[in-house]
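Exercise 7. Given the encoded structure of a 332-residue chain, write a plausible sequence.
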């Protein structure tokens, strides 16, 4: 799915982030617990090195708890990474992030030096709301849409911790095509940049396979159909998402399905598991190898095909003459 989402301010934000990183003691990366892989910016992983990182699984109240636990265990295989689950409604738990920052930077916390933390995260992951909770005052502008924060700002949280807030940054190129769908379904991409029908079909297909019982309960369907189209048609009839003549309004039912997923009305759902991502990465590797081989083949065909028989003969004659001249010089 082609979604254009890397405007100039995001490129600038990533550059500023790289420049500030040497002065940062710990990174705090806010993830969407429903899409831990897709909401983890690979550009950050490239520039972080071995710097300590706390990955916050925000919106964990909307995610499948079993999947969240599996993702935490996987990410903490990296000794420099700690994870923490929270939601914007759980203010008391969110404040424990400050304790985790101090524990992660224990040596500096024991001194009089200030701990410099940088908070990062993709758009609409709840980063600004989390900052306001930690600061106990309205610092960051919040909104239920991507790209609210536009520039870096330093926030003194007190007790020796200074937080550097950064704009939500998505990456310039998607290596995994499924990531685009998951980001769109969760709301990380502005709705004006996508088509509800497209992501609605993707969501329906996944939910039929991964969470069929939740669909049955929400849409009061005893026997789920085999395909996403049949499900959407059945759900549309149940919800009155119909046009004149009783025709199904696919856009409306897809919009409704995505809206109910985002609000949690469908239940606690995670859109990706570690096992899924492992398989997708293998497939991406094979696709990349195939693409490279096809590119090399096209290049060779173009090179060979650009020579007519006459040109090829003349080239061979010229090559032969050069070889003879080399041999002649060698003998001298």
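Solution.
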């Amino acid at each position: 799915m082609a979604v254009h989402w890397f405007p100039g301010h995001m490129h600038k934000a990533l550059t500023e982030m790289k420049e500030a990183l040497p002065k940062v003691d710990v990174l705090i990366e806010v993830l969407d617990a429903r899409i831990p892989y897709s909401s983890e910016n690979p550009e950050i992983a490239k520039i972080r090195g071995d710097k300590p990182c706390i990955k916050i699984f925000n919106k964990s109240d909307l995610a499948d708890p079993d999947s969240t636990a599996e993702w935490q265990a996987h990410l903490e295989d990296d000794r420099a990474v700690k994870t923490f689950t929270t939601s914007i409604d759980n203010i008391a738990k969110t404040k424990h992030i400050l304790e985790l920052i101090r524990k992660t930077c224990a040596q500096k916390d024991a001194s009089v030096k200030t701990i410099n933390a940088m908070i990062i995260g993709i758009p609409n992951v709840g980063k600004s709301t989390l900052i306001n909770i930690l600061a106990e005052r309205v610092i960051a502008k919040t909104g239920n849409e991507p790209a609210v924060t536009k520039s870096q700002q330093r926030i003194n949280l007190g007790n020796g911790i200074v937080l550097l807030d950064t704009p939500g940054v998505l990456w310039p190129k998607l290596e995994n095509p499924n990531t685009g769908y998951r980001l769109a379904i969760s709301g990380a991409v502005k709705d004006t940049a996508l088509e509800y029908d497209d992501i609605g079909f993707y969501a329906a297909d996944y939910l039929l396979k991964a969470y069929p019982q939740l669909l049955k309960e929400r849409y009061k369907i005893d026997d789920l159909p085999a395909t996403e189209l049949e499900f959407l048609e059945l759900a549309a009839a149940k919800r009155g998402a119909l046009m004149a003549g009783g025709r199904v309004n696919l856009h409306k039912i897809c919009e409704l399905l995505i809206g109910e997923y985002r609000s949690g009305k469908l239940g606690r759902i995670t859109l990706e598991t570690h096992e899924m991502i492992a398989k997708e990465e293998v497939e991406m590797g094979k696709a990349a190898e195939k693409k490279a081989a096809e590119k090399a083949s096209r290049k060779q065909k173009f090179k060979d095909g650009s020579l007519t028989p006459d040109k090829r003969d003349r080239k061979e004659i010229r090559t032969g003459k050069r070889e003879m001249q080399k041999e002649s010089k060698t003998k001298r």
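Remark. The longest strand covers residues 26-32. Students should compare their own answers with the one above.
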